[in-house]
């Protein structure tokens, strides 16, 4: 019996365990249309407890979260929407990608057109694109937002640790039937976020995660993004 088929003490076999993980990874998608129904606190805390197991350099666990529900989500929505629609320049703590080029530009365009096609926004309709981009600041109707921030002194690795945390959060949420969307857009006005939540000057806003129960009938949730083949991603060196 090998590790793939072994069961011990009634624990699921390795095949079952990887099967569950693969299913969660395959099912998860960025949800851009939520039901207003709130997620119980006990479920949110279960997600956070699972995600807390994320690895971080020197076990620094630099992620901290500001999580809103109910009226607090509405107040934050108002603050973010006002900032985003005011025309003020973006003032994120981390530089925006300098350029999407080559295959990265192709993938960006493909996923963008999937979204616009699902919503019936015609190609080249810049005003339509802008209206949809503003939905980021409505949290796509989600009843909750988690703002993920890190310590300035940890630099890029603090942000990497937070990225790992975000993935754990999304998978734990998926396992509990809670949909998510990670949003760099919510870090575009990090000064507004810091002021809103009373964060100290040395906290750096990495991103937000809007979450809640998915609106399965929403057109923006009707497609799935593609992934590159393994051969485009990894090289093996054996000799
Ligand atoms: C760090 C990060 C930031 C993101 N920021 C945004 C965002 O601001 N707005 C948005 O609509 N989607 C955002 N996304 C979602 C991506 O567009 C999405 O993950 C990607 O297209 C793959 O699709 P999937 O998540 O449905 O598999 C972000 C994803 C990540 C990982």
Rg from Cα: 19 Å
Helix-strand topology string: HHEHHHEHEHE
Mean pLDDT, to the nearest integer, reads: 95
Strand coverage percent: 5-15%
Shape: globular
Please indicate the count of domains: 1
Structural class: alpha+beta
Task: Count every beta strand, where a strand is a DSSP E run of 2 or more residues.
Answer: 4
The largest sheet is: 4 strands, antiparallel
CATH architecture, by name, is: 3-Layer(aba) Sandwich
Name of the CATH first level: Alpha Beta
Terminus-to-terminus distance: 29 Å
Bound molecules: flavin mononucleotide
State the fourth-level CATH superfamily. Answer: NADH Oxidase
Number of helices: 7
CATH topology: NADH Oxidase
Strand order of the largest sheet: 1-2-4-3
Helicity level, as a percent range? Answer: 40-55%
Regions with little confidence, pLDDT below 50 for 5+ residues: none
Please provide a written account of the structure.
By secondary structure, the chain is an alpha+beta fold. The protein has one domain: 3-Layer(aba) Sandwich (NADH Oxidase), CATH 3.40.109.10. The protein is 41% helix and 12% strand. The protein is built from 7 helices and 4 strands; from the N terminus they run ααβαααβαβαβ. It has a 4-stranded antiparallel β-sheet, sandwiched between helices. The protein is globular, with a radius of gyration of 19 Å. The mean pLDDT is 95. The chain binds flavin mononucleotide. The site of flavin mononucleotide has 11 residues, from strand 3. Residues 29-30, 111, 136, 181-185, 207, 225 line the site of flavin mononucleotide.
């Amino acid at each position: 019996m090998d590790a793939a088929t072994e069961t011990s003490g009634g624990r699921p076999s390795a095949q079952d365990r990887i099967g569950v993980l693969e299913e969660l990874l395959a099912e998860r998608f960025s949800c851009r249309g939520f039901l207003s129904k709130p997620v119980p606190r006990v479920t949110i805390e279960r997600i956070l407890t699972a995600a807390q197991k994320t690895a971080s350099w020197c076990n620094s666990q630099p992620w901290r979260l500001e999580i809103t529900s109910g009226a607090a989500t509405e107040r934050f929505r108002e603050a973010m929407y006002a900032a985003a629609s005011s025309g003020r320049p973006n003032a994120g703590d981390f530089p925006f990608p300098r350029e999407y080029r080559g295959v990265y530009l192709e993938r960006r365009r493909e996923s963008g057109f999937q979204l616009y096609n699902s919503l019936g926004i015609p190609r080249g309709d810049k005003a339509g694109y802008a209206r949809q981009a503003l939905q980021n600041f409505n949290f796509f109707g989600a009843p909750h937002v988690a703002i993920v921030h890190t310590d300035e002194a940890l630099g890029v690795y603090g942000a990497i640790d937070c990225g790992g945390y975000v993935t754990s959060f999304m998978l734990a949420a998926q396992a509990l039937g809670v949909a998510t969307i990670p949003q760099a857009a919510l870090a575009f006005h990090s000064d507004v976020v810091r002021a809103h939540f009373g964060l100290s000057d040395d906290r750096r806003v990495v991103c937000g995660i809007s979450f809640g129960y998915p609106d399965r009938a929403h057109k923006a949730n009707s497609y799935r993004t593609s992934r590159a083949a393994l051969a485009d991603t990894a090289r093996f060196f054996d000799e």
